[in-house]
Specification:
The structure is a single chain. The chain contains 2 helices and 3 strands. The two termini are 23 Å apart. It has 68 residues and is an alpha+beta fold. The protein is 25% helix and 18% strand. A hairpin with a 5-residue loop joins strand 2 and strand 3. The longest helix is centred in the C-terminal third of the chain and has 10 residues, at 43-52. A 3-stranded antiparallel beta sheet has the order 1-3-2, with no helix packed on it. The chain has helices at 8-14, 43-52; strands spanning 2-4, 22-25, 31-35.
C-alpha cells in the first residue's frame, strides 16, 4: 500500500506484522510504500480500516510459503 507521510504513524499502529512492516519512501513524493503480512481471515476487516487511515493503492497478494 502507499501511505502519505502525514498518516504513516497511524497506519503503522494498526498493521499486523511478523516483526515490523517494511517501509520505503516513494521517489520524489511525500508517500511511503508499506508492506506487511496479515492473516487472510483478517484482511476483509483490515482493508477498510487502512483506507480510513489514509492508505491508498492497497494490494493483496497470496503467500505460498513463509520460512521464519
Amino acid at each position: 500500500m502507499n501511505v502519505p507521510a502525514s498518516r504513516l504513524d497511524e497506519v503503522i499502529r494498526i498493521l499486523p506484522a511478523m516483526k515490523t512492516p517494511t517501509v520505503s519512501r516513494l521517489f520524489d513524493t511525500e508517500f511511503y510504500a508499506v508492506e506487511t503480512v496479515a492473516v487472510k481471515a483478517s484482511v476483509n476487516l483490515l482493508i477498510p480500516e487502512l483506507k480510513k487511515h489514509g492508505a491508498e493503492d492497497i494490494l493483496e497478494l497470496p503467500i505460498s510459503k513463509i520460512v521464519a
